Amino acid sequence: MQVEGVNPEQRTICIDNSASLKSLIALSHEIGHATAFQDMSDEQRERFVEINDTFRKCARYGKSIKKEILNEVLRSERDAWAVAIKLLKPAIKSGLLAKEDLLNYVHSIEGQGLKTYSKAIDRMIEKRLVEN
Which residues contact 76 (CB under 8 A, 6 or more apart)? Predict the structure, then answer.
């Protein structure tokens, strides 16, 4: 599964064309980001994009990063997952999706699960790249 994410400038959500349950969960997560974008001012959207770009570059190239940025990235991801879980509650109640499976996906979806972000942050901390 390949999930690209949300592009607030083009107002698009990019996701693979798979009809799998993981894709539905990932799409719900991206809808969570889109929901947050609709409540943001243009300035807040620009800051969101800047923060996420900074995080990705620092994680990829081993550059230092401010703790504040890490906190904002994690908050944004947790908020998007909270929306996804809320959107998927009817699927859980109907038995289509097990709550345990959903929570496992939240933590493990490659590239965007909370575990991915936690591992990247742990590597930054180990390399002493996090600034106050």
Answer: 33, 36, 48, 51, 52
Token code pair at residue 19: 């009809």
- The domain ranges of the chain are 3-131
State the number of CA atoms in the 13 A half-sphere of 131 facing the CB. 8
pLDDT: which is higher, 70 or 117: 70
**Among 82, 62, 39, 78, residue whose Cα is nearest residue 129:** 62
Q: Are the beta carbons of 83 and 31 closer than 8 angstroms?
A: yes
pLDDT in tens, 56-83: 899 889 999 999 999 999 899 899 999 9
